[in-house]
Amino acid sequence: MTTRRQPADEQAERIAAACLCGAVKVDIQYPAFWAWHDHGRPSRLAHGAVYATYVGTWRKRFRILKGKRTVREYLDKETGNTRAFCSKCGTPVWYVRKSAPKWINIPRALFTARTGREPRYHLNYSELQDWIFTGAALGPLKNYPGVMYERPKRKKRNEPPPMF
Ligand SMILES: [Zn+2]
Q1: Cα of 69 to ligand 1 centre, how many Å?
Q2: Is residue 57 part of a domain?
Q3: Distance 83 CA to ligand 1 centre (A)
Q4: What is the DSSP string of the chain?
Q5: How far does the centroid of ligand 1 lie from the alpha carbon of residue 35, in Å?
Q6: Is residue 46 part of a domain?
Q7: Residues whose CB is under 5 A from ligand 1 (ion)?
Q8: How many angstroms separate the alpha carbon of residue 65 from the centre of ligand 1?
Q9: Long-range pairs for 86-89 at CB < 8 Å and ≥24 separation?
Q10: Which of 45, 62, 64, 136 counts the highest number of beta carbons within 10 A?
């Protein structure tokens, strides 16, 4: 008797991602191919954040598990890129760039499990915003439990002028 082996893709571990309301659920084969931060304006606006972090993989390794009809797609006519979001809660759920149509990028925040890739790449880094949090020292804000506060930088008084 012979046992039929499953194709490698069917045996692979998969990791799921879901939108805020849970109506849209997708998964990808583990590990992802890469993870990256996008500092460009379109991603900033689509996410309402200082930058967006994506996990990218081949489209053939991506599946929609739930909520296909709930997803709406937006084609950015300027770039040719397509962004999808949940029509119930507004969460961005995937992003396909015109220049890389075989790839799909899912916001990292939608995954609860590890994706197998650290976000070490920065796209559109020249657009980095000056309001980004870069890990400055924080202290608790008095009378606001749970709120941390970054003290403004003090100008040094009575400092001699720089020597040239
Ligand atoms: Zn949703």
Answers
A1: 11
A2: yes
A3: 14
A4: --PPPPPHHHHS-EEEEE-SSSS-EEEEESSPSEEEEE-SHHHHHHHTSS-EEEEEEEGGGEEEEE-GGGEEEEE-TTT--EEEEETTT--EEEEE-TT-TTEEEEEGGGBSS--S--EEEEESGGG--TT-------EEPTT-TT-EE-PPPPPPTTPPPPP-
A5: 22
A6: yes
A7: 19, 21, 23, 86, 88-89
A8: 13
A9: 86/19, 86/20, 86/21, 86/23, 86/24, 88/19, 88/21, 88/23, 89/19, 89/20, 89/21, 89/23
A10: 62
User: Which residues have CB under 8 Å from 59's CB, separation 6+?
Assistant: 96, 101, 102, 103, 104
Judge whether residue 18 has pLDDT over 90.
Answer: yes
Ligand 1 center from residue 151 Cα (angstroms): 36
Q: What is the pLDDT of residues 19-61, one digit of tens each?
A: 999 999 999 999 999 999 999 999 999 999 999 999 999 999 9
Is 2 among the domain residues?
A: no
Range of the domain at 107: 9-129
CATH number at residue 37: 2.170.150.70
Domain count across the chain: 1
120 within a domain of the structure (yes/no): yes
Place of tokens 């396909």: 96
